[in-house]
Design a protein that fits this description.
This protein is of the alpha+beta class. The chain folds into two domains: about 25-35 and about 165-240, Beta Barrel (Elongation Factor Tu (Ef-tu), domain 3); about 35-160, RNA polymerase II/Efflux pump adaptor protein, barrel-sandwich hybrid domain (OB fold (Dihydrolipoamide Acetyltransferase, E2P), Beta Barrel). The protein has three helices and 14 strands. It has a six-stranded antiparallel barrel. The longest helix has 27 residues, at about 70-95. The two termini are about 35 Å apart. Mean pLDDT is about 85; it is low at about 1-20.
């Protein structure tokens, strides 16, 4: 009888040990690291759309263009003005040391005119650049809000983009678990996928130092790489803690 009780007691201890060793699963949600609404920097007519919804684009890719004929002509005109002013200044600069026919004030005037022309060319190029909307980072175009031929004002939203290659996992934890989350330390993450559970290693990016009054919980964020986009931002997941 004593032997049976001893075996039973050992079994209880083993079961308790097994339960305590089970990893703690904390639910959370994913979101893209970057999500932006692309806007026009100037008023105009949308004339070129080089992408469609769902396209993956790299940083710097031209996505849209507004009508820009006048701006292109202005850049061309300013380039000619700079060329003329530069030649005029250089000729005056060469004549100044060898002849008294050119006053110092005249040389300084020519230099100012040339430098002003250079600045005005830069302004014209910047105005042209504002007619072109480029991708600020590599990501997916999720929504296009304006069609070719439609007019827009400055700050009119044209499209939405998300970075699906770099994601954030966000969870709300019991304050007692806060010390277990240290910034830049690795943390295991799990996500459900059609092919089964996907496990990735994230890195703690943020752990709140103040408890939320409404929920009584701490907010934790972990960043993780998603180069092939297998984990869709918005899906649920879990932090697994031993």
């Amino acid at each position: 009888m004593k032997k049976a009780l001893k075996v039973s007691f050992l079994g209880i201890i083993a079961a308790a040990t097994s339960i305590s060793a089970a990893p703690l699963k904390i639910d959370g949600l994913t979101k893209p690291a970057d999500e932006v609404k692309l806007s026009a920097a100037a008023p105009g007519i949308l004339t070129v759309q080089k992408v469609k919804e769902g396209d993956f684009v790299t940083a710097g890719t031209v996505l849209f263009e507004l009508d820009k004929n006048l701006e292109e002509l202005e850049v061309e005109r300013r380039e000619l003005v700079v060329e003329v002013k530069k030649v005029d200044f250089e000729i005056t600069q060469k004549l100044f040391p060898s002849t008294k026919g050119v006053a110092k004030e005249e040389l300084e005037k020519k230099e100012r005119e040339y430098r002003l022309a250079v600045v005005e060319l830069k302004i014209a190029k910047e105005q042209l650049r504002r007619r072109i909307i480029i991708a600020p980072f590599s990501g997916v175009v999720t929504e296009i809000l304006l069609d070719v031929g439609e007019a827009c004002q400055a700050q009119t939203e044209l499209a939405k983009m998300v970075d699906t290659q770099h994601c954030i996992f966000e969870a709300h934890i019991d304050p007692s678990l806060g010390p277990r989350f240290k910034v830049n330390e690795p943390v295991p993450l799990e996500f459900d996928a059609p092919e089964g559970t996907m496990k990735v290693t994230g890195k703690v990016d943020y752990c709140a130092t103040v408890v939320d009054r409404a929920s009584g919980l701490l907010r934790v964020k972990a960043v993780f790489e998603n180069p092939e986009g297998k984990i869709r931002p918005g899906v649920a997941g879990k932090i697994s803690l031993q």
